[in-house]
Amino acid sequence: MTGVKNRLSAPAKPRDFGFFIDGTWHHGREMYERFSPSHEQSVTRTACCTKQDIDVAVGAARKAFDKGSWAQQSGADRADVLLQTASLLRERTEEIAYWEVLENGKPLTQAKGEIAHAIACFETAAGAARLLHGNTFNNLGRSLFGMVLREPIGVVGLITPWNFPFMILCERLPFILASGCTMVVKPAEVTSATTLLLADILTDAGLPRGVYNVVTGSGSVLGQAMAEHADIDMLSFTGSTKVGRSCIKASAESNLKKLGLELGGKNPIIVFADSNLDDAADAVAFGVSFNTGQCCVSTSRLIVEQSVADEFEHRVSEKMRKIRVGNPFDPETQIGAITTDAQNKTILDYIAKGKSEGAVLLCGGQVVACGKGRYIAPTLFTHVKPDMEIARDEIFGPVLSSFRFETVEQAIDLANDTVYGLAASVWTQDITKAFSVTRRVKAGRFWVNTIMSGGPETPIGGFRQSGWGREAGLAGVEEYTQLKTIHIDTDRRKHWIAS
Ligand code: NAD
Predict the structure, then answer these.
(1) With a 6 A CB cut-off, is 188 part of the ligand 1 pocket?
(2) pLDDT value for 371
(3) Angle (deg, nearest 10), helices 431-440 and 408-416
(4) Is ligand 1 within 6 A of the CB of residue 246?
(5) Is the CB of 175 under 6 A from ligand 1?
(6) How close is the Cα of 486 to the center of ligand 1, in Å?
(7) How confident is the model at residue 1 (pLDDT cuts 50, 70, 90)?
(8) How far apart are CA 46 and CA 36, in angstroms?
(9) Nearest one of 302, 287, 268, 305 to 430, comparing CA atoms
(10) Is it the case that residue 69 has pLDDT exceeding 90?
(11) Is residue 175 a contact partner of residue 479, using CB atoms and an 8 Å limit?
């Protein structure tokens, strides 16, 4: 294992990273210093790239795409590189997890689980690379034949957030590679290390130069430049709805590049009185607290049947109090630090708003002192009114708002009372109720008597203001392709102009 001396503490001095263009490491003139959110000490220094670096990276990706060094390889050859990457990731899991924890603050055990998921993404995409195909039309008449080719879209810009730096990257990148595209990746400034570590792994796995390029630095400068760039054919953006909107504007005002957008959520969990309440309470506590609630699919609204509401909210609060918050290197820890100062302030401000708006604080609401770092206790507000800010805004922290219903219609209306539509969950033993809810609640992903389960085989994405397009699975490869229709006539032409 390279670069890891002691997995149980932060490194004595920060590790420097360059940025990666056309198979070569470059050094930043200015560096961004990242302090671990749980250890409060400098852990990494990454380059503050410039707009000119973006131009060079896009140029390298364009050259690699046009040359066909990747796009024209067979699906089988692309699959070999993806499978080899999966195998190298297995060998380097400890190292990648270590840097992910230091920059993000999540528990080491969780980070390792996310790398296992990333490996599964590479393996799934390898299968997809071999199976990707177009279509034929043999029903156009005796002499006319139709073919639909599926071609890679070209150069993809990939902008990722800080909450799952490696996992979100790997829910997209292998599928982009499977399609035959080349790319320029810009990770969130605070969590760039693992995206950079992947560069050497992909090279060792046999990925040709220029196919994977990484630039690091400011979102408002580099991310914006990518959204505006005339030579990027598609931008895959994962982050806030606000920035997603600015990407749409930038695309409209530049080259009308295709956009894949994975944005915010305000995800409901509906609990009927007939469900196994203990299982459901555990799922609710997990859904809101996992990754300190900093997941796009975090459960943030509990919608519980009136007849069991008091008892159920009590059960959830009991479970939330037992969640082990603290040092991410402690194998017992279930949730770690809040990733950024700004996010910490946002969450604490929403907790203060919830109190001042008149919601009842049933548990949490306070910071947790762990010596160093910033930690917030899982928090449950009951008696939340639909017009309160904690009911409407995406908080992106371990804060749950509880609502009550008496009829299935009310539950569905409450669940749909948001501009978002990313994910939802329903708990009941009654298949009829489960189906009415899943068919009528607007969400891109639905869990019935389960939460945040599933693998890279199935597509990920949102309805409404949660985004456009789908990642992962076959749909996730097709997203990065475009269709070309070809007609072939085997007969002589019937002339339009009389001879
Ligand atoms: P963010 O939108 O501020 O940043 C996301 C990425 O965009 C970062 O790499 C950032 O540097 C970059 N960026 C910033 N300004 C930009 C601009 N003007 N143009 C282009 N790129 C720009 O979001 P965040 O704070 O990193 O993440 C939190 C948000 O992301 C939450 O709202 C959350 O719901 C959302 N999110 C969604 C998903 C999903 O899959 N739907 C996953 C993770 C996070």
Answers:
(1) yes
(2) 85
(3) 30
(4) yes
(5) no
(6) 39
(7) very low
(8) 14
(9) 305
(10) yes
(11) yes
- pLDDT tier at 4 (50, 70, 90 boundaries)? very low
Q: Burial letters for 318-351: b for 16+ Cβ neighbours within 10 Å, e otherwise?
A: ebbeebebbbbbeeebbbbbbbbeebbebbbebb
| Spatial distance between the Cα atoms of 325 and 77, rounded to a whole number of angstroms | 45
CA of 163 from ligand 1 middle (Å) equals 9
DSSP bridge pairs for 262 = 238, 467
What integer best gives the mean pLDDT of the chain?
96
Class of the 4-263+462-484 domain?
Answer: alpha beta
Mean pLDDT of 360-365: 97
From the CA of 106, how far away is ligand 1's center (Å)?
18
- The two structure tokens encoding residue 456: 């890279």
**Residue with the nearest Cα to atom 42 of ligand 1?**
296
Distance (angstroms) between ligand 1 centre and the Cα of 270 equals 27
From first CA to last CA, the distance across the chain in angstroms is 77
Q: Where are the domains of the chain?
A: 4-263+462-484, 268-448
Is 247 catalytic? The answer is no
Check pocket membership of 323 for ligand 1, CB cut-off 6 A.
Answer: no
47 lines ligand 1 (CB under 6 A): no
Contact 175, 245 (CB under 8 A): no
- Which residue has a Cα nearest atom 19 of ligand 1? 224
Residue 419: how many CB atoms within 10 A of its CB? 12
Tell me the whole-structure pTM to 2 decimals. 0.96
Residue 318 is a catalytic residue: no
CA angle centred on 177, ends 174 and 182, rounded to 5°: 135
Q: In angstroms, what is the span from residue 459 Cα to ligand 1's centroid? A: 20
Model confidence pLDDT, tens digit, residues 103-130: 999 999 999 999 999 999 999 999 999 9
Distances (CA, A) of 352 to 318, 344, 386: 22, 12, 17
CATH number of 268-448: 3.40.309.10
Q: Which residue in the list 100, 171, 262, 305 is annotated as catalytic?
A: 262
pLDDT band of residue 2 (cuts 50, 70, 90) is very low
